[in-house]
Design a protein that fits this description.
Elements lengths: L4 H20 L1 H7 L13 H11 L1 E10 L1 H8 L1 H17 L10 E4 L6 E5 L11 H22 L9 E10 L6 H37 L3 E9 L4 E10 L9 H10 L3 H15 L8 E6 L7 H4 L5 H5 L7 E5 L8 H13 L3 E7 L4 H9 L3 E4 L1 H4 L6 H17 L2 E4 L5 H10 L3 E2 L14 H4 L4
Parallel strand pairs: 6-7, 7-8, 8-9, 9-10, 10-11, 11-12
Antiparallel strand pairs: 1-3, 1-4, 2-3, 5-6, 5-12
Helix pairs in contact: 1-2, 4-5, 5-6, 7-8
Amino acid sequence: MTESHDQRSFLLESWLEFHDIIAAHPEVRRLLFDPVTGLPTTPLLFPRIESLLEERGEISLLCLNVVKYSKIEEIYGWEIFDGVMREAASALERITGMELRDSDIVAELMISGNAFVVLLSPPRTTDNMDDDSLERLARRVEDRVREDLAAVLDPAVYPKFGCYVGHTIARSDDRVRLERLVHQALERALADSDSREACDATVRMQRLEEIIASESIRTLVHPIYRLSDLGIIGYEALSRGPADSEFERPDKLFKVAYDADLVLKLERICRKRAFETARDLPKGRLLFINIEPEAVADPELRDIMFTTLLSDAALSPSDVVLEITERTAITDFCSFRATLEYLRTLGFRVAVDDGGAGYGSLQCLAEVHPEWLKIDISLVRDIDTDEVRRSLVASMVTFADRVGVKLIAEGIERAEQLTVLRALGVEFGQGFLFCTPQEPFPADEDVTPAL
């Protein structure tokens, strides 16, 4: 069954008229097209929906829902979230002609929202779309969009959210207004995506609980070098989940832990494994241990002086640098700072991770007064070719000199980056240029390159 010539002419004429209206009244475009992605919003789908309902008696919809998006805005600000939505729109565009057909229509649910709608064209071989086929299509679209986003987004940003594709079929009903029928269909599709998220979260939480119960956490170490002569001054302890699992990467491990309210339990095991590893820490080297902001107030961390963890590892608190990560925003700096000051009185030193990334990092720096500051990989990545990045790092060097903070450049991968960092006066660094994370503890000659 196909559209009649009269129907196609009507739709074409309607769109041409609408195009003329938009050209004459730009304010209309602002109301109906999303300014971030440029996509139309749901009201612009109504003529096509009405036509399909009259012709076929039903429509099929997909709804791609970007969940946990508030985490991105909370940590990185709205501009980064806008970038995520632009990339999600681009991902849908890239799969048009493959998973999606050229005749499928992609729109945003609403202006500056966090969900996309796909109005599917009719099936080619049957009069109507069946639920099983729609489910399989939704999963293919979901998988492809996730793959695309993982490939193009900053690895620090991608784990902060998820995207789930829900689906529904809406059937014509003369008793229900078109607008209400569409609204109800979108609600069902969103509810379907929410149920997928909830199911996913339950399964992941169960897996994480098993990892915590069995303490299946490994510790790798990554050397930190003095850039002038590539002497090793310490090691960062890196926690990893079970090998070849979705929890091997720490970003996924801690994302699920935050969602499941298991951060403190996970932190305690990571910390325990790091200190067990530190029994073989070479004398005179520092041990950098990542600490989630939420875990700073953990009583077990405060009482670590009175446990056997440090003594068994032959460490004193002055050998340990607590590296505050920015995986989540700090909401109460007053109590956070007070807790850190207590840890300092015990002898621990403090580092702030991700310096220069995320709107919260500067406030964290001002409130915490760390002894160490890590320059985020996003500033180091193109420092040899980007004048703005060089200027930002140069200003950080000046700041560090004034306040007595030691700088560590993260993510050094090329000799050209090392040359620029040395010239700018950055004293310490780490990265794959020197070596990848190692089983503890490598011999110096195995991890010191000849550069």
